[in-house]
Prior knowledge:
By secondary structure, this protein is α/β, with parallel strands linked by helices. Strands 3-2-1-4-5-6 form a six-stranded parallel sheet, with helices on both faces. Helix 7 links the parallel strand 5 and strand 6.
Amino acid sequence: MKIGLFGGSFDPIHEGHLALVHAAADALGLDRVILMPTGMPPHKVKVSSTADADRLAMCRLAVQDDPLAEVSDYEIRQGGASFTVDTLTYLTEEHPEDTFYLLMGADMFLTLLSWKRFEDIVEMAVLCTVPRDDEPIDKLEAYAKTYETLGADCRVLPMPLRRISSTQIRECAQSGRSLEGLVPKAVAQYIVENGLYRAAGDVDRNEQFKDIIRARLTPARYEHSLAVAAEAKRLAIKWGADPDKAYTAGLLHDILKNTKPELQLQILQDFGILLDTAEQASKKLWHAICGAAFIERVLGVKDPEILTAVRYHTTARAGMGLLERVLYLADFTSADRDYDDVDVMRRLVDEDPEEAMMYALGYTIRELTEKNAPIHPDTIGAYNELALKRSVT
Ligand code: DGI
Ligand code: FE
Ligand code: FE
């Protein structure tokens, strides 16, 4: 049998790789092609941190309906960077009867002399490459001649391929552009669903937010914020809201909770925000109103869903959006919460989100009436909206 071996980081695998596989298979009459995602050398992990499992999964999806190609996890299982010469040694021992064709892109082909034990590689495999459509073929042919004087058997296939790079795909994914035509559909879906190659800025921003809230909050309140962020993200995934936004909203929702009331009033005044009578009456509501304004104007959070979720996380209101409900309930069910009914609340959140809203609002209202505290009209509005819906049906 003629077996092609095509190694690469495949971060991600794309149509250019697959075109090369098929061009080579057609031209050389290959019976099988083994795709071999490479393990990542430790020093590269920071630059290209896509998990081995993700790169492997994308390769498998890319060729799931392709009888010619298969994916090997051999190098990834070895851990760290592998050398082609070692992989070929393993494969030729496993398949002593077969002929191996080492497939590679044009860039790689030009670097072959620096590969470990080049002289042994050429003993074990035919070296094959395909030119790119925007580069002349003669350079590759000149290199092939040199390699042949060193004992190699080379094939430079005459059909140039369109240039696609994994970098270009990562950039598209990062800016939310379509990956259509660049990667197989199943791979595009995998990238989106798993949030691969998302703007590093988003992640760093949450890291920055953590530092900011840690400096403003007591240790317990900081832990609470992390727990609410985690719970909000979980609920967002479950209910189809944006998990990143939910996480950010969770981190920031109590950002001014440990700020003195006088200072909160000062901040509101500085921002030109006036409190209505009901709000003036309850200091406990201020941190939500002020907090939303603070994260918008001081931290530069512009997303209106995050801002309203924070704004209404304490009182709730009628007509809440999905992210608002996610944060409101996450604040009740986060891992750090410990009140009498917390188990009931947690069960309801997972079984019946609307019932959970009703329960949370009822609980809050009960607590407040027990203390003879005023109830903000927004809270009553949220409660009535749900109660009226029930009394009609
Ligand atoms: O900030 P957290 O403690 O995590 O939670 P939160 O923002 O829901 O604040 C809860 C406090 O706010 C709790 O002491 C009850 C109070 N609260 C919630 N809704 C109302 C309210 N207080 C008044 N006066 N009126 C309300 O409608
Ligand atoms: Fe709060
Ligand atoms: Fe909270």
